[in-house]
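Tutorial handout. Part one gives the primary structure; part two gives the three-dimensional structure as tokens.
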Amino acid sequence: MAIVSVDPRDRTPIYAQLDRAIRAAIATGRLAAGDQLPTVRQLAVELSINANTVARVYAELERGGILETRRGVGTFVSATPLKAHPPKQHDKRLQAFITRLLADASSAGFTLDDVLEGLQAHRKEDA
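Part two.
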């Protein structure tokens, strides 16, 4: 079983889903510093995606200090949960989430006011 998953039906590009899934696995503790990730080919086969996509995500996460590749040994988690989702990316991720939410709401026939009213009602239920 793969350590992460992607959803081919999701409108989010596969590389973005994979990046987010690896970061989330680290942030939630499913992957810890020092854990070895599957090889590019292994993960590509497990997820039924292109190996170049996995390689791209691994390379970007390595540049970001999240992963570390040891030649001839493999790719390992090098980040702590806090570093997996740096605070400066919070706003960017939030805006992307809001954009997806509003697009999905619009395609389902809901207005921004409908969404806001629903969120307020949900907030009151949780209080």
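Part three, for discussion. The mean pLDDT is 89. Residues 87-126 form one domain.
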